[in-house]
Amino acid sequence: MARSSLVQVRLGAGADLDGFRAAARSLVAGGVPPEAVVFTSGEAADLFGAPVLPEGEPLSLPRAAADLVQLVACHRDPERWALLYRLIWRLTHGEKALLEVMSDPLVHRLAMMAKAIRRDLHKMHAFVRFRRVETAEGERYIAWFEPDNHILAAAAPFFRNRFGSLDWTILTPGGRVRWTGGALHYGPPATRDEAPTGDGFEEGWRDYYESTFNPARLNTTAMRAEMPKKYWRNMPETAAIPALVRAATSRVGDMMDREPAMPVKRNPDKAVAAMQDQAPRSLDELNRIIAASGPLVPGATRAVLGEGPVGAAIAFVGEQPGDQEDLQGRPFVGPAGQLLDRALEEAGIDRADVYLTNAVKHFKFVRRGSRRIHESPTAGEVKHYRWWLERELDLVRPGFVVALGATAALALTGHAVPVGRNR
């Protein structure tokens, strides 16, 4: 094909998914093969070349392909659009099962790009740190983050759902997003000096991090893999890491030299009473207390907080997080969550409009080999978490609450509720 017959597609900067979808529809409708298309990025999105392409109908792609396109569109690789169009062309020209062939070089490369985006999203969800700022408009929370890819728009709904009651802004080199309670507002690229360098909460956060640091389990290789050093300068707790690492050997020696002592029995009731004294004024404040207070069930790792908008019409309360919830730090993302999603869809309810939480905020499990097997919380453990749940629902103010199972009903009512007789 001569150079003059090439079709050039110019897309907007970043993850211009809408522009790519429109272009792909036109290209497929016009019968333009992948080798005849050149994709470029610019400020404005337009389609030009010869011949003039028709406006295409929506493409019928497998769900897995649509999800892959949405992820890979966020990648920084300039070849992503050409690779994605080649995938779409092959799917719409007879290779319907293409995505099942992981040995195919195109499928493998796109899968690796999608994996990189999922990893980048996970890092952003975990490592964004908001700083409180007092302005003439009131209290605001601002964060600076430097993602590897164009993921700001893909990551923003997570923070909207998690911090729906706050006025917050995330600044990145590629753009910014602000949430004020009504909608997500996107803006131009930012510089680091636009973000605050600290707030009054950070000293307490560093103290908590230092108190939970276990020198006997220090593994700097694993630490750098999970929390790469490039994110450290934006995370207040990392300022303590060098000193903690340097002192780890001597601290372990001190621990070994101490006289054996009987463990101090933890009293969860005192912990709950102490939390009551703190009287959090917002859902974000309560979540900070929950995250910092440590688990009240054995074997748990981190708190899985509630998710959804303040003032939701419906709040769903489950028993406790499962394995996937504990790994991802979000409620109802495992098998039970997938079942709930299907039920919500059949009922015509948008998951983004409801509030989801659990009676117990930590994953209680027993380990069998490499697997972590769910273990139901006791009535006493449910009681210990009950103040958190009641305060959480007071702050969310749902129209009504749905108990998903007997444990949730026990937490909400304070007494055993046989599900079969009270469904």
From TrEMBL:
Residues 305-423 form the Uracil-DNA glycosylase-like domain. InterPro entries: DNA_repair_put, DUF4130, UDG_Type-4/5, Ura-DNA_glyco_family4, Uracil-DNA_glycosylase-like, Uracil-DNA_glycosylase-like_sf. The keyword Hydrolase applies. It comes from the Bacteria. One of its GO terms (biological process) is DNA repair. This is Type-4 uracil-DNA glycosylase. NCBIfam families: SAM_7_link_chp, UDG_fam_dom. Coiled coil: none annotated. One of its GO terms (molecular function) is 4 iron, 4 sulfur cluster binding. CDD domains: UDG-F4_TTUDGA_SPO1dp_like (cd10030). PANTHER family: TYPE-4 URACIL-DNA GLYCOSYLASE, TYPE-5 URACIL-DNA GLYCOSYLASE. Keywords: 4Fe-4S, DNA damage, DNA repair, Hydrolase, Iron, Iron-sulfur, Metal-binding. Belongs to the uracil-DNA glycosylase (UDG) superfamily. Type 4 (UDGa) family.
